[in-house]
Amino acid sequence: MLKNISAEIKHFNRQHHDFRILVLTNMIYALVLPVIDIFVAAYVMRNSNDPTKVVIYQLTIYTGIPLTFLINGFLLNKFSIKTLYSIGMMLSGVSMMVMMSLKTLDLTGIGVAGIIMGMSFGFYWANRDYLALAITNDQNRNYYYGLETFFYTIIAVVIPICIGWFIEIMGNKESVNLAYKIITAIVFVITILASIFCFRGNFSNPKQQRFIFFKFDPYWNKLLLLASLKGLAQGYLVTAPAMLIMLLLGKEGALGTAQSVGAIIAAVLMYIIGRLAKPAHRLYIFGAGLICFALAAIFNGAFFNATGVIIFMLFLLVAKPLLDLAYFPIQFNVIDILARKEKRNEFAYILNHEVGLYAGRFIGAGTFIFLAYYFSTEAALRYAIIIIALLQLLSLVVAKTIIRQGEEMITELNEKNSQHGKIETDGHPALSGMDSL
């Protein structure tokens, strides 16, 4: 066992400097992600007892994200990508401070906190996606995301259960709210540490080129459709687990425990898959994630009780990392191909991709609000996820088409460039492994 661990550490150390720094920076920041994703929604639910406010909070986050992606594109011409990346991480702590300072959770206060959190996610993901694209190639992206997912899932074992029981032990409402404030302060400190570590990297900004386009190659539209289907689930899943656990299990301690059950197995599984899987295996990984997601939805709808929530969370712990492990390399490979074909800034595709995600997120959250308003909260929590899971199965067909067409386009580009006596990679590390998917 120790020999295997030593071998994996040596393999990681063989990766180039920026690869290691980005992984370690994201690992530190991952300590706060369970707080942002789960416990902020639980805080809104606890203090308002209104699931629709949780969804409205999420919608304001989703609105802030694409706007900040756009702002980030302009700011990259003036500021270091490390600075903007760090601002994104630190803003998450600021948003939580705003939320905890509200005496009453009215829609205005929730909206302001949500917009700030959306800006945090916008700066974080816009720069994180570009850096991940820039420092990886198609051959090591499975390993990169497998490694990240391993750390994220291990952290998801420790953080939710510790925070959940810490909040529950505090007891009455006043003490619980104090616990949330203490957690917020810790989050802010961690974001500062992650930001400091980020500056150890030799990260370069994208080339100062035009990054706003309204017309793309038809191939890009297929990825936007896939992004919309991904966003459809995100619009529901970011807040639904917290609402389900608060309603059916009742307390943050149970919430943290449910998040942690089975996560160790999932973490090891994701690392092994990321380490051993080849680009050709991505469609199988993606399909497995979609099936786990569908099973989670079906069990939740069939039982809709404490047992159903536990089963739902167990399947979700496997489904989400499987989907991400396959999705991001597929997305980045499409960007590699089209940036090479259309000779555009990679950030142009990262920005436009967010539009597809936003459309899906809006529809997903809107589906919940519609069912909650016209039927009941129970109907929304019980049946919306089944509708979304069934629609998500279409992603497998779309992904298969994207991968097959990508292989054909790579062949065409290589043949075209070979006729000119060269393959144009402009020294970009992401393009050096494009000969196979």
Describe the structure.
With 437 residues, the chain is mostly helical. The protein has one domain (12-202, 214-420): MFS general substrate transporter like domains (Growth Hormone, Chain: A, Up-down Bundle). It has 17 helices and no strands. The longest helix has 37 residues, at 306-342. It starts with a helix and ends in an 18-residue tail after the last helix.
Structural class of the helix and strand makeup?
Answer: mainly alpha
Mean pLDDT: 83
Distance between the termini: 32 Å
Beta content? under 5%
The CATH class is identified as Mainly Alpha
Q: Note poorly predicted spans.
A: 423-437
Proportion of helical residues: over 70%
Could you tell me the radius of gyration in angstroms?
Answer: 21 Å
Which outline best applies?
globular
- Tally the helices: 17
The number of domains: 1
Question: What is the N-to-C order of secondary-structure elements (H for helix, E for strand)?
Answer: HHHHHHHHHHHHHHHHH
Number of strands: 0
Pfam families: MFS_1
GO cellular component, one term: plasma membrane
GO molecular function: transmembrane transporter activity
Keywords: Cell membrane, Membrane, Transmembrane, Transmembrane helix, Transport
